[in-house]
Each structure stands twice: as C-alpha cells, then as structure tokens.
Amino acid sequence: MSLTLGIPKETATDERRVALVPDVIKRLGAKGVKVVVEPGAGEHALIPDALFEEAGATLSSDVWSADIVVKVAPPTADEVARLGSESILIGFLAPLSSPETATLLRDKGVTAFAMEAIPRISRAQAMDALSSQSNVAGYKSVLTAADHSTRFFPMLMTAAGTIPPAKVLVLGIGVAGLQALATARRLGAKTTGYDVRPETAEQVESLGATWLDLGIEAAGEGGYARELTQEERDQQQQALTDATKGFDVVITTALVPGRPAPRLVTAEAVEGMRPGSVIVDLAGETGGNCELTEPGQTVVKHDVTIVSPLNLASDMPEHASQLYARNVQSLVELMLETPEGASEPSLKLDWDDEIIAGAAITRDGEIVHPGAKKTVEAAA
Question: Which residues form the signal peptide (predicted)?
C-alpha cells in the first residue's frame, strides 16, 4: 500500500503559505510517495489546484487520514481530532509557547515533529525552516520599512540637490538580521548592525555594514563573552538608546526561544528619533524588542511609525512556501526507506538519529521534547 502524505488548507488567520508546492510533490512522487492535497490549499499562495494535479497529487478533502500530514501553522483542536492515532504530523508546532498543542497531540497518540525544533547542525541545514522563513522575513522587513518611511533609502543626486542615504540600524544579527542588512544595502541605505554577541561583528562587516560599537568590552576567557555586571548592562542599554536616536530606520530581530523578547529600543530612544522615522519590530510574537510596540499593529508614537507584523513570511507566500516545502521534503526523505526489491518506500523513524529525535515533540503517547515538557508542566 502506498505511503500517503496529506496537505491540508491552512486555516490560521492571515496564513497564506502552503506546506508543499507542485515541484516538491513531483520529487516525492518520483520516490513513490502519494500526495493528497485539500482543494484550495494553495489558493492564497497563488497556486491553483490544477498545478497540484499536474504534479501528480490527488485533490481530496480527506487529507487528515494520510500517513504523514504536513502543515505550516500549528493545528487547531478540531484538526488534531481529525488526525489518525498512528499518523505523523509535521509543521511549526510552537513547542515552547503552545502547551495546548503538545497536550492534544500526545493525547491523540500522534507522532509529531516541529520544524522549529530541528537541530541546527550542518547535516540539517536543508531542513532548517526557521532559517528559510527568517530569510523571507528579513527581506520583507526592509521593504515594509521603506514603504512606511517618509525618506528615500538611496542617496539621490538631482538637479534640485543631493539627498543623503537613509541610515538603517539592524538589531539582532541572525538570519533575519543579516538578510535585512543585505537588503537595505541593496536599496542604497547606509547600514549598521548590532548584536549582544560580539563575534557577529565580522558577519555585519562582511555585508558592507558598520558594526555598532557601544564601548562595552565583554571579552572573557577562551574566546567567550563574560557576563556583564548590572552597571555595565545599564551603560550598554543607555549607549544603545543614545545611538538609536540617530537612525532613520531601526529593524529589530532579537528573539530568545521560549522567553519574552529582549527590550532593545526604549521609549526614550523612540522619543529621540527624528519625526518620520520607522521601527519594524520582528519580535512582536513574544512581546517585541521595542518598549512601545503593539504586537500585530502599526502605530505612531512620538511621530515615529512602529510596525510589528506577526507573520511576515506569510506576506510573501509564493517563495516562502517554496522554501518551506524544500525543508519539509528533506525531513520527509530522512524518514523513508525503500527495502531491497520494493517499488515503494516505507516509513522508518530512526530514533538514534539526532535530527529525528531532536525534532520530535510527541511519540508513543508521551511528550518527548524537553522544552515542550517544561511548557506543559508550567501550564498545568
């Protein structure tokens, strides 16, 4: 019997991505995997049902009975109820912030794998959905800032005079931050980056940006940063506040898994920025990096526009879906084996594989992810 993989239509508010795209469905089909797609699943990503059919998928509303179900957003309680008790679920499952999801999946007996829990090791790079979607968010954050800005990004030399380039500060030098720096520079802005990890300075400078030096030396033994004293932390925050006032655009990307976002942009900093400046806060889902952020909203405070999108990658659903689908493909292929002499693959979950074990949230009626366990225990 063929191994089936189901792709439901996303139901979360403002979620426009789809878990698999036709190109990836073709590749999985070539390996003997039968893909079932719910009608309209790709509608918001501008992928019509006909393209899924041309790729070899079957259109059916009965996607929840598949051996493997792949989603983007965490499932609702109703969706979990529709899963088979021995099925596999793959998707963003929020193991550190949604104890309800982990509990429901455990009670249903589903084996669930969270894309955000995949170990960040070299062998798993092709499966790293956090990075692929952060790339999209970092790019889109700059376009969002430019759209709300009252100023040009590039320097313009015109008959009416010269307009200097916008000064853009990116706080948090991860995947999203690096992409934001690169995109802002492509638009002609003068870019600066900052992170509490001093080792990221080289990455910032490799993109032609300036490293923001706050004058706090935190070098410790063995190449690691030492812990700052409270006085030094206060000095660091004040230095960052003072520096922030001189930028036209600030993009913040600092997130700490399972914890509230660190506050990097104070109300004082916002008040000191020039009228018409823009802050794009990508940490709104966990409270925001800016003290005046209102998650999910666009507000104006002290004549500064503060934008806090909650699912920015979904604003570019076509390419975001393509990247996510390739991440999923790599993970699914790790779960397959084709026995000698067989024409179709079968499931083989190697629990000694650090990727399989690390990404698992629930298994055999238990919550197995350490972070998810703590989240559920704390909510009990």
Answer: none
